[in-house]
């Protein structure tokens, strides 16, 4: 009984941590611009794929992971500079459509630049499962959970303790007011793209040993991450984390205790129910209506 | 306006000739147009990509050796990206614009079924490379297929289970077309094979963790084997999770993952002992000298691996079989007329391909029996032929 529950919980938390990281990426960019960046899943894909191909080329894993994050940040910044920035006067809907285009473009480039196969990475600390109260847990699950916690902490410190982080928060609170007090909101948006890309890439590196990767893994992750962000309340970093973990847990517990045929249905039913009761999501800002 | 009498007669004769030539037939000397719609990209790309490479490689080889009936083959390949709607659009284009005399392709069952009416209406022979049994059952006049069906895979797996004295099975299947179809076939033939399905689970084609499902199967009463119907990365993750949870009952995969890539994705440690039914191609070097398929599969394997520098997969082999069946039928029919070509394909007997020995008939548009499947087991990161 306990073993079973623990197995489901770890499975759910591991997958949920990845959803949470994707949701966090959505949140950061949304806060800076009201744009839902649908290329967020592609950042995860790039993180995994670049690491796979760098290690295959003989680069040691830690360096390959670092390169992957760096390359993805560069892609995120370029995406902002080449696609979002030139359309800065456009409405949020237009910018969202641009990010959908960017997502398709990145997937297409990845097909050509890498290939169309699935790839795997060895677990960072091997792949022998660790027995825990009757459950068998992959060491990589701890890497994912630990890595996610570190990223959350790092992001929290950045937002709370640094001037740049405070500028991000000011922009999220009120863009016009932030601009009036001298915050360069365009730079904040660029920064958000860079940080979101970095978080996505890190998630991709951490999770690839468990989930495998290919050029099109981003689509589903973006969808699940988006659902998580909506559940937690779009715009709330804490909501993103809670939402992500909840979606992951719901899936695992749904598959384990209800039926695997309805596992996605269970997760989405709960999301719909929550949004019905709390339209702003669990931690969303309520009553903010722009006219 | 006065048209000179001679010119008028020539024009009339030309028009009559044009009318007399049946649609789709091409004059000798011109290339024979062969079409293909494959999922070269998208989720089924690991099937479509080797198929595409194989067709191009062998069409070039055949043309280099003088073509068929003194005419060159002209291959037109469209990529449906795994989308059945797009496949149908391309099928119409092949028939109406490219005027192909035959079609070798259709990577997935979904794409094949979407395209089938187009070729049936146009009376253009269509050799599909997809697994689903519904493609040829009941047989359609112009539709054929080369791969084994999922029902045969189920029967082969169940026969192997019974031979090991096992009968209680936990099934886990993907919810994609392949997984759903094979699941249905397995459930259908289970009883006749003396196998009881005691637990049944599913997973989405993009899921990344199947430990909850496998935990349920493990906890089901007296499960003696786990059978996974699915293709893509799902079975690799099921295999990893099966090992992670330390489940000791044997794990069977489907022919859908019969490639070296599966072992590397699942990791050799986790895949150790996994069994699956596969075409002879997978164990080409291990086939006994007397095996009729040995020479064919070795030749194909050598040619493919030399050209593309990547391991051969059975899916490319299906394309090889389809193209060769077509070429032989073209030679026998000595015609590109749809119906005559169809009759020639249907008359294929004793054709030795990578998938098995093909004996077609009016009621069997695939022509393979269970002997075409070989049961293989992963040992030390490679496939080993399990005594037939």
Automatic annotation (TrEMBL), chain A:
Question: Which GO terms fall under molecular function for this chain's record?
Answer: transmembrane transporter activity
Q: What GO terms in the biological process aspect are recorded for it?
A: amino acid transport
Which membrane topology describes this protein? Multi-pass membrane protein
Q: Is Ubl conjugation included in the keywords of this UniProt record?
A: no
Q: Which UniProt keywords apply?
A: Amino-acid transport, Cell membrane, Membrane, Transmembrane, Transmembrane helix, Transport
Q: Pfam families this protein is in?
A: BPD_transp_2 (PF02653)
InterPro entries, sorted: ABC_transp_permease, BCAA_transport_permease
User: Out of the domains of life, which is the source?
Assistant: Bacteria
> Where are the membrane-spanning stretches?
6-30, 65-83, 90-110, 130-159, 188-207, 227-253, 265-283
Where does this one sit in the cell?
Cell membrane
Q: Report the GO terms under cellular component.
A: plasma membrane
Q: Which family does it belong to?
A: Belongs to the binding-protein-dependent transport system permease family. LivHM subfamily.
| Name used for this protein in its record | High-affinity branched-chain amino acid transport system permease protein LivH
This protein's species is: uncultured Acetobacteraceae bacterium
